[in-house]
Amino acid sequence: MNRFIGLSVLSGALAAGLVIPFTGLVDLGTRKMAETVESLPQELKTEPLQVRSRILAADGTVIATLFEQNRVPVPLSRISVVMRRAIVAIEDSRFYEHGALDAKGTMRALIRNQTEGSVQQGGSSITQQYVKMSLVEKARTAEERAAATAVTYQRKLTELRYAIALEKELSKDQILERYLNLANFGDGTYGVQAAAQHYFGTTAAKLNLPQAALLAGLVKNPTGYDPTNNAKRAKDRRDLVLRRMQELGLISAKQANDAIRTPVFNPKKMQKIPNGCAGSRYPFYCAYVVSKLLQNPALGPTAKHREHYLKTGGLSVTTSLDPRIQAAAQASINEHTKPRDSAVAAITVIEPGTGVVKAMVQSKPYGNGKNQTAYNYNVEKSYPGGYGGFQNGSTMKAFTIAAAIERGLPLDYRINSPEQIDLSNKPFRTCKGWTKAPDYKPRNSTTSGNLTMVEAAKASTNTYFLQLSQRTGLCAPATIAAKLGMYNAQALGPLDQVVSFTLGVGYVTPLMLSNAYATFAARGKYCTPVLVTAIQDKSRKPISTPGPSCRQAISPEVADGVNRVLSAVMEPGGTGGRLNFGSWDLAGKTGTIQDNEAVWYAGYAPNLAAASVVADANLPYTNLMYGHTLDGRDIADPTGSGTAGPLWKTTMQRALPGLPLLRFTAPPAKMLGGQDKPPADVSVER
Q: For the segment 454-481, what is each residue's pLDDT rounded down to a tens digit?
């Protein structure tokens, strides 16, 4: 018995291509060899197959594919019979006849290796090959990979013992299925399904004879026989497979000859699966989604574990992206900008009441070349590719309006608002005390006079809102802004409570501002932005992902009041009047920062909100009117309504059709008017 085991071990080692003098093996002795075999482990613990993951849009279309190995496992029933026959013919023609070890093949290899000197004849069975591939796949370090491929008796004996155990556990078809799904087929493809898609634009189930023969020939040397590297060598190998199939009686001579006359492959039919977000149609959105996935503890204990699982776990990640609305935003960018513009533009679209991010677009395409960028101008700096926003000007007035309404001021509350006011050293209450601005004498660029809140918003009168924020104090609007998700996207801290707060402070992003304004549209219901709506593993079982986190940030009545005021902005004569369209209920606010370095428009319908920005993105920032272009032309009207507004309007005009025609809720009658003086608890001065 020991002698038989020794011979089996000897044969197995040589069958796998290990060439060592025969006398050396004889000297080992059959008893010692038997003891070695008996001490080896029996159960082969394999790693889960690395499977590519997909990121999907809300409608199920693929946004991006992520992988370390491009693989799509399929059952044997979905692999063509001719493919199965081809791989068995060239790799192990007696696979269904022998056990873990092919004795005939082993002895043939032994004789040839001993008599032909330098010629190394392999004889490993498909089962042994599968074991070796599994051990290599399992290796995580260079040392482990070296051990898994070392030319030693110990490794060969280990592989043989695993193969014997495997053949007891699995059927031949099960082993072949695993083998065909694990094997490297060259040019970055693993498994027969991915290889069929890549080389021929088909599936494993539809592989024909010459296609199957090419893939079967690749397994022995995926790089050397790769048709994209050397078509002639690949064809020679394929034809060898075909002749072997003919020799075994699996195909006729005519079938072999017809297949040999077939071109090795058609490059035009190749399907190169882009790996990662850089190859996505929506690279900036995709990369931001990936950054959020890497923060999800359900995918692993650390970001490194999560990234590995994301690229190998066969996940299906469904996102919030709406291709129709994304196309609307992209069409607007295409219509109003060009990649070579010196100014940059960006827009984010969000669904009120859910926080679902429907679209995210910008004017500079993704890349490192000329007129390209790796920065995402829509998101915060804490994300590795985030630019960190721009100052947003008078769009901040919306939070002062909300604070005034919350304090009980009516919409017809009047303040004498001259063209210029002197606020030098005037005290403004903050959450922690008081603040002043030395030598601060702001001016209006629009209407002045004794104005109501609605009239002042319609004209974006600076001196009105500065005085209004003095009456409310800075803590109230700053607190509301924070509740609606506003913070400094570069410093990653709260917005500064400074005297000019209502005219724009800190740096904010289109994502942040569109979501804050979406809260007004949702009658005060704030939801954190949602980009990932569902994750499934490769078995289609759900994986936990943070869902919508919503709360009532301000009262519905306060939001209704804000909506009424900002609706006036889009009436004839308002700064956003030329941006109104159709029969939709619309509200919005322009924003222009000092020296026109950035201009904004943020606006919404009851069921869709968006914020657009046009800015200088190169330090030091400069006035958009001087030396900057948009849509290939000098910027003549660097304002929120004239430059950023058209981006917003075109997007919303294309995005809103198909959605329900909803109306804003009217604010309570008492909010519309009645008092010209502030309530007793509103401080004007210290």
A: 999 999 999 999 999 999 999 999 999 9
